Structure formats: structure tokens, C-alpha cells
Amino acid sequence: MKVIYLDNNATTQVAPEVVEAITPFLTGEYFNPSSMYEAARGPADAVAAARRKVAKLLGNARSNEILFTSCATESNNTALFGTVAANPNRRHIITTSVEHPAVLNVAHDLERRGFEVDFLPVDSEGRVDVADFVRALRPDTLMVSVMHANNETGVIFPVEELARITKETDPGIVFHTDATQSVGKQPIDLSGNFRHVDLLSFSGHKLHAPKGIGALYIRRGTPCRPFMLGGHQEDGRRAGTENVAFIVGLARAFELAVENHDADVARITAMRDRLQRELVERIPYLHVNGGEAPRLDNTLNIACHFIEGEGILYQLSAYGICASSGSACTSGSLEPSHVLRAMKVPFTAIHGSVRFSISRYNTEEEIDRVIEVFPEIVGSLRRLSPYWDARRDEPTPEALEMLHETEMPQAR
Ligand code: PLP
Fold first, then answer.
1. Ranges under pLDDT 70 in the chain
2. Ligand 1 centre and the CA of 213: distance in Å?
3. What's the pTM value of the predicted model, to 2 decimals?
């Protein structure tokens, strides 16, 4: 069965051009770039060129402001732990309640170590209120970490504005953004709209490079203590022999994303919008999570009232369709996503959320197939749901009463 891959916010197919670019460094040019002999010059030059390329694509950053890491999780950990280690006099951190766990769990860990952390709430569309942010800033604020685009809903945060306000309030506050979902998709110019951002994380495998390569931009002069200690690689800021091939791949993938940007955006947005329109038209009691907020063009997160996202995913999988749900299955209990919880998605829908995320490799025919099978899947699951009256093919009167409740009413 042909796979229809619509889970591109989880990871992406490696671009053929990227495979071509990295292959020499997995075969003939395997030398350690730190070695002194002539043969190592090729890998060393390739890493230097990739660094210049990534710096340039981020808006004419300096190449020594780019740190290659193993993934966005490492970049985020370095940004947060590195900043607090370098600034012992301040103890207050601001982030949001909808960050990826690679920021959220670091923030919780810092809380346990005695830092004060404000987790900003979001509204029902997943938006942060700028006034809340301004109120949260304090004289002892050490850093801000606000993601650029949310991985579950695609909702875009006003990072430009928040970073500007931060620096106008106190240039000593370090501003970090996790841009893992937006690099290559959204305009990011560290000399322009993002000029007030000090630290920016991202990852190769979200933009058609392999898994296992990431980057952290560290603006010159930003205090950030190294997280990985060892050799002198990366100017002594991240020890460990460079992953030459994947560094080359990351730079090539980023370059392709920028080169293809306009054409990709037009196609991807058209596919996403059509998918959304058709599903909303064909399926009652469907809600688009974050649908009213500025959103990534490739992301559609829909909440199907009265059914479980996991059931939908299994059935989609039977058709070869790959998507994801917001729920994380931990220790046997299905916990709804922290992002949808923060958005106060009604409890009749919070378990029924499904995320489709599109890439340049998807086709209109694949979208047609989802439009064809998804309403059938939702219909069949609803007929089995205790909230659905299968005979009349509509929700039970009790279910309708609960439609806007965010918590399950206590059993009477
Ligand atoms: N941050 C965001 C917003 C993400 O979406 C992800 C991956 O899903 C990560 C961080 C972690 O990325 P990585 O898998 O490269 O560690």
C-alpha cells in the first residue's frame, strides 16, 4: 500500500538533493575535520561553508554565531541551561504553557532548582496575549523563551514584537525562540524582523534534512555557557566531533527551502485550505484548532467531537495515511495534549484531535484520498460512541449539553 505521509511536523522525507550533497561525506570524505592532514581539508571546508550558508540564510548572521548541535532538543537545552549558568544573578524566566517538551521540561527542571518560571497562558485559538507578556516582565527577569510556531496547531507567535518589547524593557534579558517548526517556512531575518532575538533553535529533520542534526544561533555577546564539555569543536562551545555529512545536509536543506519557498507555500497552502474546507463542510461537529490565529501554511489540526484521535489514526493508518494526534500515550493512560488543554478545547473534542501537516512532496491526489476516507472514518467511530445516537445519526441530547464544557462533568 502506498503511504500518504501527512505528518511533516513530526519529521520529513530527506530531499534527494540533500542525499546527493551528503553522500560524499559518508563515503570517501570521512576524515575528521579537526585532523591536520591535507585529506581532512575537504570535510573541514564543507563544515565551514555550511556554517556560512546557514548564517547567511538566517539573515546575514555571522558564521561564528551558528552552533551545530544534534537536534532542536539539544539546542533548546543549551539555550536555557547555558543562559541560566552564565547569569547567576537573575532567577526569573518567562515562557509559554504550549512550548514543545524540549523547552517545557527544561523550564520545569529549572523551577525545581529554584528558578521562578511564568508559563504564559494562551486563548482558545492558541494565541499569547502581549499584555500578559508585558505584565510578566520583571527587573530580575533573566530570559524569555517563546516558540515561533507551535508544532501541534501551527499557531505563530509574535516573536518579533515580544523580542522588541523585551529589549526595550531591559536589554539584559536574553530572548530565545524555538523556531524548529518555522525555519525555512516563515520569514526569519536576524538582522531584520528577528534582530532582537538572541538565541534561536532549529532542527534539520523538519526541513528535509536527516534526523540527528540541529543548530543554535547565539547572537554575538550573548552569555551562554557551553552545555557539552570536551574537545574544542565549535569554538569550544559544543564539544564532540562534528557530524560533517548532516551539517552539510542541514545547510543544503535550508537552502532548498529558501529557493523553493514561494512555490512551496502556494501549493502547500492551497492543499491545506482545501483539506480544511472540505472536511469542515462534510463533517458536523468539527473544529479547527487555532483556525482563527495566524498559522503555519502546512498545518491543519482538527478536533472531532465525540470520538478518540487514536481511533481515527488507526483507521487512517489502515488506508496508509500517516497523521498524528495531540495525545501522548504515557504509562497506559491517554493524556490529552498540553497545548489543547491550554487552549481549553472542550473535553468532548480534546481527545478527538488530529493533526495533518503537509510538505512539498504531497500531492493533490493524496489530499483527495483523505477527503474521501476521513468523513467515513469519523462517521463509523461516532456510531460507536456513547455520545452519539446512531439511530438518528446525531449527538445524544446529553452530549449536546456538554459541547462547550472543558472538564468532564462529575458522574452524578
Ligand atoms: N521544538 C519543536 C517546536 C518541535 O516541533 C520539535 C520536534 O517535534 C522539537 C523542538 C524537537 O526537535 P528534535 O527532534 O530535533 O529534538
1. 326-334, 409-412
2. 11
3. 0.96
